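Sat 14:20. Reprocessing the chain from the morning session after the first attempt stalled halfway. Input below, unchanged.
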Amino acid sequence: MDSFPTDSSRSTAAITPQRRWLWVTGLALAAVGAGVFLFRGSKEGDAAGKAALRPVPVLVATALTGDMPLTLTGLGTVTPLNTVTIHSRVDGQLIRVAFTEGQQVREGALLAQIDPRPFQVQLMQAEGQYAKDQAAFKNASMDLARFRDLARQGILAQQQLDAQISLVNQNQATLKADQAQVESARLNLVYSRITAPISGRVGLRLVDPGNMVHASDPTGLAVIAPVKPINVVFTIPADSIQRVMTQNRKGGHLPVEAYDRDLEHRLAVGKLVAIDNQVDPGTGTVRLKARFSNDDSALFPNQFVNARLLVDTLKGAVIVPTAALQQSPQGAFVYVVKPDGTVDMRMVELQATEGDRTAIRSGLKAGEVVVTDGLEKLRPGSKVSIAKPDAPGNAKAKA
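Finished this time. Tokens:
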């Protein structure tokens, strides 16, 4: 009897040598891929390890011992010692302006001239009236002398003598009034010449020659402001006023420096001369006044400046650049470069900060080297390489 193939025999017969070869090839390719993957992973790990061991380029600075000034800086305004607006004291026509705008004038110098002729006429009239009344006074005085002789002889009644005495007194009073008119006319003639009441710099001319000027004019003719010396009024926080007053009471005047708005250029050096007697409740500041000789005219009235007041000086402090300081929840710290080229994280206690310098109270010694740039890549124990400040591309160092 013939037999027929079963299902198992059919599946076995379907596995041909070609299929067997495909299976072997696939397994070989998978093994090769796994090997390549493992090899690349080991190479990347080696590269990462080498990168971790590569020194971090940094900039450093050495902690130094020195004196560190402590200052207070406040915005101030340059103000003259006094400002005078020149007004005319009499009414008349302005016929001459004797100053140049911006000129430095001395006290008593001629600034302007008002037409003096009306005042000369008034003076002549007053002097004429005075001469007339003076003649009447002399005549009455001579009559009084004669009346007294007649009264002593019993020829003249006492009533007539008393009347003559009264007339002489009236004439004498009239002479005093006339003399006052003469002096007033002379004063007006003097006032027609407008002179500088103080020494200082004259501003722009406010009235041109030919115009009528009056004593009641609100604007005036010009403004004079002395600029040598000159004051600077500035403010400091009210919390610092006790430090200032304590140092000011020790004797002498605290030095003050005036800088431009950017605090880059020092304009003048002066001294503190006054402290206000109250705190401004709106700003919480106190006004101070400093005086500057201003010999080079570096300060100009109403100019805005930054006033830097020297309050105290720390002697023998350990000073580092402020850029070396970092902050953590535990406090301030610096990275100190050790002799083996690695860095150590050092907690420090700050004493004072002044601009780009900071005084260290404890935690750091003079002569130790601290990192000032490249801090973001450092960890305790990191290897560092000190870069040159003028290295190409080092923008921070160049700045």
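Residues 17-53 form the longest helix (37 residues).
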